[in-house]
Structure formats: C-alpha cells, structure tokens
Design goal:
- By secondary structure, the protein is mainly beta.
- It has helices at residues 21-24, 44-51, 152-157, 178-184, 201-206; strands spanning 6-15, 27-38, 54-56, 60-63, 69-73, 76-82, 87-91, 94-101, 106-110, 113-117, 122-127, 130-134, 141-144, 148-150, 163-166, 170-172, 187-190, 193-196, 208-210, 213-216.
- Helix content is 14%, strand content 47%.
- The protein is elongated, with a radius of gyration of 22 Å.
- The protein has 5 helices and 20 strands.
- Helix 1 links the parallel strand 1 and strand 2.
C-alpha cells in the first residue's frame, strides 16, 4: 500500500532545509505559503524530490544556509539598536528601521512595508511589498497598521519632526493647514493613498511617500 502524502497549506514559512529527499517525497503539495526555504546548496537528489511537489500560490522560494535564522516581523514595529547579524528578517507587517548597530548589512525579505533611513545598509533578499527610503531621521515616528484620519489636533500632538506612516491610507482633514504642518515639520508615508485638501497639496507632495497616489479632496 502506498503511503498517503501530506499537503502543507496556508503557512507563512515552510522550512525544508533539513529535509532529506525521502522526507520530501512524503509531501504532495504546498499551497499558499509565504516563503519556502531550501538548503543553500541542495543536492541533485533533493532538487529532484522537491520538483515533484506541486507548488501553488506561494510567494518566495529561497536558498538559505542552515545556520541562518529567519526572524519574522508581523504587525507594526521598529528595528533599531543592535540586531542579529546572522539572521534574515522577514517583514510581513510595517517596520521602521533606524539607528541600527550592525557590522554587516541587514539581511531582509519584505512582504509588507519597510521604511528605513537613507544610508542604512540593507541587503534585500526579496521585495514582494514596499521598501521606502527617506532622507530624514525616524527617531520620532507614529505608525498605524491600516487607515488613519488625521485632524489638526492630532498634528499638534505629534512631536516636531515626526514621521507618520500608515499601512494603507492617510486622510488629512480640512482644518490641517500648511503652516501647522511646516511648524511641526511632519513627513507622511502611506502604503496606498494620501487624501488632502488643495491648500496643503504642495506640502504633502514635497514631504510624503506613497505607494499609489496623492488625492485632492476638499470638504474632508
């Protein structure tokens, strides 16, 4: 009787680096995996067995040395200070990278959004999402997972030189003025759109990064 093969479904990371060819032969298919890790230098027998696995709706297939750890970052967070120089960071959410202490480039794969200070040494292994470099400090930041609607009171509560980021859309209400934005020196980053009034469009165009577009809409 033939042994029933298994399916691996809806998994963020499928790590096959320590699998033998015989172990691979027990896998029928891999469906909806974010990343599949293979040995850095797989044998011919390994690759032959792997080629028999049906791969569907999978993001990245990557060869990686066994001693390197994959560190997954979900949600909104910051990568700062001393980091693990032997790890690869997998960014699935939104990550601010600043003031990093590392003697080697940061090894990174991006499925979400990574925002980093210009000049930060990053070795991008793969970018499926967005990697945004800005020419200013990220020490002061306010990060939102999805959409955010911001009025003048919120702007006043931000510290000067704050970088405001949202995973999807930012909407600035009509009471937000160019003078107020300039006084606070706010910079905006949106994974998708920024919506603002015509009066502040010039400031936003000069002090923002967007994944899609800046939209003018009065009466917000």
């Amino acid at each position: 009787m033939f042994e029933k093969k298994k399916s691996i479904t809806e998994t963020g990371v499928v790590d096959l680096r320590r699998y033998t060819p015989d172990a691979l032969k027990k896998i029928k298919q891999i469906i909806c995996a974010g990343t599949i890790l293979l040995p850095e230098k797989p044998s011919a027998a390994f690759m032959e067995a792997f080629s028999d696995i049906k791969i569907t709706a999978t993001g990245l297939i990557m060869n990686l040395a066994e001693h390197i750890e994959l560190k997954t970052i979900n949600g909104s967070t910051a990568l700062t200070g001393k980091i693990d120089e032997n790890a690869v960071y997998l960014i699935n959410g939104m990550c601010m990278v600043y003031s990093v202490e590392s003697a080697v480039p940061i090894k990174m794969m991006v499925n979400g959004i990574v925002i980093y200070e210009k000049g930060t040494d990053i070795d991008f292994k793969n970018i499926n999402g967005k990697a945004i470099s800005i020419n200013r400090s990220l020490e002061e930041n306010a990060t939102y997972n999805h959409d955010i609607k911001i009025n003048s009171s919120v702007i006043r509560n931000y510290k000067k030189d704050t970088v405001v980021s949202a995973g999807h859309d930012i909407m600035l209400t009509s009471d937000v003025t160019e003078k107020l934005l300039a006084e606070r020196n706010i910079y905006f980053i949106a994974g998708h759109d920024i919506t603002c009034t015509k009066d502040i469009y010039g400031y936003i165009a000069a002090n923002a990064a967007v994944g899609h577009k800046i939209t003018v809409q009065n009466g917000i």
